[in-house]
Amino acid sequence: MTTKRISAELTDDDAIKLDILYTTTRLNGMPKKDADRMFCEIATLSVEKAIESYRRETGVQYPSYDQLRDYLGKI
Questions:
Q1: Residues 6+ apart with CB under 8 A from 48
Q2: Is 45's pLDDT higher than 90?
Q3: What whole-number distance in Å separates Cα of residue 70 and Cα of residue 37?
């Protein structure tokens, strides 16, 4: 089994956005460890779908952070 630990400290607007997303997806009432894991799961699936969509549109297989962020800002 491969394990990857992700840790991030969000502040201000980013922290508020995350709280809203947790509430929207009904993760806010769960134990933090479970909610974080589940949120990362849907975030990973979302990024995978965005990369595939970007690839279909541009032909670029591995977009950079800036390319993907800009692309997502347009859709």
A1: none
A2: yes
A3: 26
